[in-house]
Amino acid sequence: MVFNKTFFGNFGSNMKHFIYRSHTGLLLFFIILAGTLLRFWHFQDIPFTFDELSAMSRTQFDSFRDLIRVGVVEKDSHPAGIQVFLYYWSMLFGESEMVIKLPFLLAGVASIYLAYRIGEIWFGKTVGILTATYLSSLQLFVMYSQMARPYVSGLFFTLFAVLFWSKYFFRSFKIKFLAGFVVFSALAAYNHYFSLLFVTVLGISGLFLVQRKNLLVYFMSGLAILILYIPHLSVIFAQAEKGTIGGWLSEPGPYFLLEFSYWLFHQSLIPIMVFVLIIAIGFFMKKTSLKMSLLSKKRWLLLLWLLPAPVFGYIYSYTKEPILQYSLLIFTTPYLFLLLFSFVGEWKMKPLVTAVILIWAVNISTLVAGQHYYQHFYRQPFNQMVKNAVALEADYEEEVFIISDYIPYYTEYYFRKYDQELPFYTTRNKDVSILDFKKMLLGIDQDIVITSGLDDIYFQLILEQFPYWEEFETGFTYEQYVFSKNNLNIHTAPGRTSITETTFDKNDYDWQYSEDHMVTDTSSGDHFYLMTAEETYGPKIEIPLSELMDDIYQIIDMEVEIVGADANLNAVIVGEIKKGEELVHWQGSDFSVFGIETGKRQKIFLTMDIQKAMSNKNKIDDQILRFYIWNRGKQQFAIPHIKIFMRPGNPARYRL
Were both Cys, which of 155, 330, 542, 595 would link to 435 (CB 3.0–4.6 Å)? Predict the structure, then answer.
């Protein structure tokens, strides 16, 4: 009887364990399937981003030596690993977007499984499942899986390194696990300097766990990683001597980590609330078989892994140049989930499935409908520009001219994709002056111009020569304009709204200026405002931003017509935003860069993108917009006309 009870008791326990494992495996399968679908959604339509095209442009070398010397050392500041991989991968399989992105997409899918395995080893299946669910559905992991850059590859390598490291310390002290740790740590070191930083911290943290009898072999594993990395040391030294090619990022503010956390959860409070709710429920219903001392040690290790990336990023950003950005935290973010989910214990299958479905519902809906991820990410500026230009030629049977600020390779890549070449001009790396740009515009024979990536000032210059603004397209990181010499009647561009203008024929109370300087040409009847050599500041206007607009996604164009000026005129259109006495933004447009011709009537422009001026902070209350003429050289000239317009900006510019 005792035998029967024992036998059937063990049998029942084993069956429950088997069923739980089977259900867990099935649940993990669906988590990976969901992550795969999110990453491979319309796989054939995912275009290259700026970073990817930059990397592809640096594979165009005839020798490996030139690839390293120019493509890595001179033109890049990353380790050579991914650049070398792209060089040979594209050589073998071609340069199409699908082919180039495929290994990174697969690495992103595999990372979901690896995160589960690490969570299972450290804290149990519940932690592994919950962590994998977030890796499958958050934008951070989806987006960088769709980019052929060293982010998801670094995630893949570091997760594999942690998996083997974890098996060594928490399962069995076998050499094969250390060998796996060595190989993937070396790959991570060749991948990105922040993935190198992570595996360095990972290796050091093992010293807190290793037993004395295994200390030598563990030390040898670290030495093996260093030996594998020796071929790359010359690249590091050369890059350090050259200096970085950065400078385009801004310094991280004091709330960078909070801003990252909000962005991580799709800039929505609902996913944050669900995340907190799951942790809270799990904390109160937790049941774990792990000893508290081991649990605490693991949590301290995870905290140790989380700190170096933001700390080093902050220090470097303020002592050298800004480098800290969200993508650099992808290597450590999985361990944030492991750390916080370590407090939830082990769950039964039904509440675990419920939690996974809830996470999916919230994360996927905010990704697709809240962030509009696929709408924005699948419209990259380089592909859109060429695709739309080709479509314009086909629809209107008119030749199209492209103007951009893109490296020629980026445009030419999409010429090859769409099997059509169009005339184009780029301002990139040419130190183009306003005069040069105006001369270029005068030399265009085509009737239609499409522009992308240009500085704000060029809009009004182009409108002078191509007076019909036909189309306007905005997207993540770009604005695209279509202009024509002859009206195409497309009528999709929003147009400009006149805010104010003055012709100085009467006292305009919106403007502040001296009536004594209002003069009339008796022969023509034209009215002018006469700036004299004694006058430092001329006509000025102040308007509360809240009276002009409801949000910061607007652009202000100012047009000042001058006459009777000397070629050496030293004057500036000034645009400011002030809050009380605080100067929020200042910018000036120097008359001289427009090429003043003595005595000639001509226009000077200033364009202010309010979103950029306000540093993307959508707070316009109590903000005063002010424009005025600064006669810096105290010279005499006349102003017959001033106009100020407003046009829509780009709410999607920083959307993702």
Answer: 595
Q: pLDDT value at position 110?
A: 98
What is the SS3 assignment for 635?
A: coil
From CA 625, how far away is CA 545, in angstroms rounded?
A: 6
Distance CA 552, CA 612 (A): 9
Check residue 111 and give its pLDDT. Answer: 99
**pLDDT 10s digits, 142-179:** 999 999 999 999 999 999 999 999 999 999 999 999 99
Q: List C-alpha distances in Å: 425 to 5, 234, 380, 382, 475.
A: 85, 38, 19, 14, 22
Q: Name 602's bridge partners.
A: 562
Contact (CB, 8 A) for 363 and 139: no
Q: What percent of the chain is helix, strand and coil (3-state, nearest 5)? A: 55, 15, 30
Domain 497-647: which topology?
A: Jelly Rolls (2.60.120)
The structural domains of the chain, with segments of one domain joined by +, span: 49-377, 381-484, 497-647
pLDDT of residue 1: 47
d(CA 387, CA 393): 10
Residues 6 or more apart whose Cβ sits within 8 Å of residue 291: none
Per-residue b or e along 467-494, where b marks 16 or more CB atoms closer than 10 Å to that residue's CB: ebbbbbbbbbbbbbbbbbeeebeeeebe
Kindly give the residue spans of alpha helices, DSSP state H, lying in 94-214.
97-122, 125-137, 139-145, 152-170, 175-191, 193-205
In the predicted model, residues of the chain with pLDDT beneath 70 are 1-20, 244-247, 286-290, 507-509
pTM score over 0.90: yes
- Give the model's pLDDT for residue 10: 54
One-letter identity of residue 38: L
Q: Are 204 and 165 in contact (CB under 8 A)?
A: no
In terms of Cα–Cα distance, which of 502, 508, 542 is closest to 626? 542
Tell me the residue type at 444: I
| Euclidean distance between CA atoms 373 and 41, whole angstroms | 11
